[in-house]
Amino acid sequence: MPKASSDAPDPKAKQPRRSHAEAREAAIAQIVDIATQEFVEKGLAGARIDEIAGKATKRKIYYYFEGKEELYRAVLERAYRQVRESEAQVDIASGTAVEALRRLIEHDVHYHARHPELVRLVMNENIHRAQHLKQIAALPSRNHSVIEILAQLIARGEAEGSFRAGIDPVELHLNMTALAFYNVSNQFTFAHNFGVDMTSETALARRASQVADIIIAWVTHKD
Amino acid sequence: MPKASSDAPDPKAKQPRRSHAEAREAAIAQIVDIATQEFVEKGLAGARIDEIAGKATKRKIYYYFEGKEELYRAVLERAYRQVRESEAQVDIASGTAVEALRRLIEHDVHYHARHPELVRLVMNENIHRAQHLKQIAALPSRNHSVIEILAQLIARGEAEGSFRAGIDPVELHLNMTALAFYNVSNQFTFAHNFGVDMTSETALARRASQVADIIIAWVTHKD
DNA sequence: TATTTATGTAACGAACTAGTCCCTAACATT
DNA sequence: AATGTTAGGGACTAGTTCGTTACATAAATA
To answer: How many independent structural domains does chain A possess?
Structure first.
């Protein structure tokens, strides 16, 4: 059999002439990709290193990572980094404060729905009392950016006279996220218990709008 | 050593003169108690039958249950039964509809906080896409009681003129539960990420009140 | 009294699983 | 080209874990 020189996407193809540094990055990204699927599907204890990939990839895992838990932390860190990156890109400057808040909330609902893997990883982490999250040093500082965005929005809303006084940005974030998160995290038990579908585009659009209604009703009502 | 006749709560004490039926119930209740702790702590895959209790209890488990999964289902069913039983006991008749709704919501927030084992079991079940829940036949019918209670409350609120028209009882339940549930389910990641405590009595009371504010603002606002 | 039901103790084995060892190939350096 | 370094393929292993079984015994029931 002659060696065929082809650039077709053969999964078994060995990418030749790649520097060690490139190969390293590619290998790690590949491992984290596959591991994310497995951990998201079965959790930390349920995931099987052997099934994350064939024996070949298994060998790579122990070459690049200390073990199952370090791999899990890598998966977790990347998922969190991606959320924070997406959050920073929502336009909160244009329109009224109420309009900007609605945009942010609807983004949140859609982001959670489109990224169930993040939701599942966070659920898992809470089952483990955040013990792996605590070992990732980089995270705490990044979280404050969300709170600062909300604090600005609250200040603007108050200045515009639409928001009532005394809204806590952390509490606002908690309430927004709870509604966006639960819709994904508990979709299976809720759908089964109450016979509703929560995944269709229609249901999602209605949900995003309703969550925004709820939060806005709360921040704008004056008693 | 003479046999001491004592009625002190000795864990090793054998309750004599118990019928087989009584012994059976007691043994099953004991197993489910211990298994609940283990499954709540570590999830289905993480739980270890050998560590649920000593060898004696292990022997009982396989005497009364088919295996790990049937035991897990028993744990799940009991936890769900207990929620539904508690929900049916809230007074929703006295006072205005708004007052009754507030009572129901605050009960919900407190119940979730006092029963983290339920929250964790439900999280687990969602990670498994509700596959074990679906095998429990008794549940779906029980869930409709909650919805009926809410439907009555909505009708009363509309009649009293305090609620706006068109509130869906399932959506109302979804929103209430989301806020009550998230507070417990995500307490570890949220507390770590934003440096807040969510478990103190003060924090819980404030939270219960705030969740009620949010839902009531939403059902009563008229635009 | 005889029989069934329940349960305490120990041990077992088949299947599984995280992690390791050896060896070869690909790349880097001189 | 020769030698060193990095990467990984395949098999193996040491340790778990679930589920079972054997055996003894005590209590409830017929």
So the answer is: 1
Q: Check CB contact under 8 Å for B189 and A122.
A: yes
Burial class for A88, CB neighbours closer than 10 Å (0-12, 13-18, 19+): exposed
CA B26 to C1' C6, whole Å: 12
A156 half-sphere exposure, CB direction, 13 A CA radius: 16
Residue A107 is predicted with a pLDDT of 96
Q: Domain holding B148: CATH number?
A: 1.10.357.10
Looking at residue A136, what DSSP letter applies?
-
Tokens at residue A41, please? 């599907």
Q: State the pLDDT at residue A141.
A: 80
Residues in chain B: 223
Phi, psi of A59 (to 5 degrees): -60, -40
Segments of chain B scoring below 50 in pLDDT: 1-16
Query: The dihedral of CA B89, B90, B95, B97: what is its sign?
Result: negative
Spatial distance between the Cα atoms of A204 and A209, rounded to a whole number of angstroms: 9
Residue B218 near chain A (CB below 8 Å): yes
What is each CA distance from B72 to B9, B42, B59, B79, B128, in whole angstroms? Answer: 28, 12, 16, 11, 12
Pairwise CA distance, residues A212 & A149, whole Å: 17
Nearest-Å Rg of the Cα atoms of chain B is 21
**Amino acid making up residue B220:** T
Cα-based angle B69, B72, B74 (whole degrees, multiple of 5)? 115
Residue B132 belongs to a domain: yes
Q: Give the mean pLDDT of A97-121.
A: 97
Mean pLDDT in chain A?
Answer: 90
**Residue B212 sits in which domain range?**
77-220
| Cβ–Cβ under 8 Å, residues B44 and B128 | yes
d(CA A102, CA A96): 10
**Dihedral Cα B172, B173, B175, B180, nearest 10 deg:** 140
Please report, for residues A96, A194, B133, B175, the alpha-carbon distance to residue A186 in angstroms, rounded to integers and kept in the order given. Answer: 33, 12, 12, 12
Chain C positions with a protein C-beta closer than 7 Å: 5-11, 16-21, 26-28
Q: Is residue A20 part of a domain?
A: no
Contact at CB, B133 and A189, closer than 8 angstroms: yes
Residue B65: inside a domain: no
